[in-house]
Amino acid sequence: MTISLDGPAAPATAEEFLNRPPTVGQRVHSVLHKQPALSPAIVLVLAAVAFGLLNSRFYHLQNLSLVAQQVAVVGALAAGQTLVILTAGIDLSIGAVMVLASLVMSKLAFDQHVPGVFALLIGVVIAVVAQAVNGLLVTRIKLPPFIVTLGTLSIFTAITLIYAKGQTIALQPGAFLLWSGNTVSIGSLHLTTGVLMMIGLYIVIGFALRYTAWGRHLYAVGDDAEASRLAGISVNRVLLSAYMVAGVAIAVAAWILVGRVGGGDPNSGLNANLESITAVVIGGTSLFGGRGVVVGSLIGALIVQVFDNGLALAGLDPNYQVLAVGLLVIAAVSVDQWIRSVKA
Question: What is the rounded CA–CA span in Å between residue 70 and residue 163?
Answer without folding.
Answer: 27
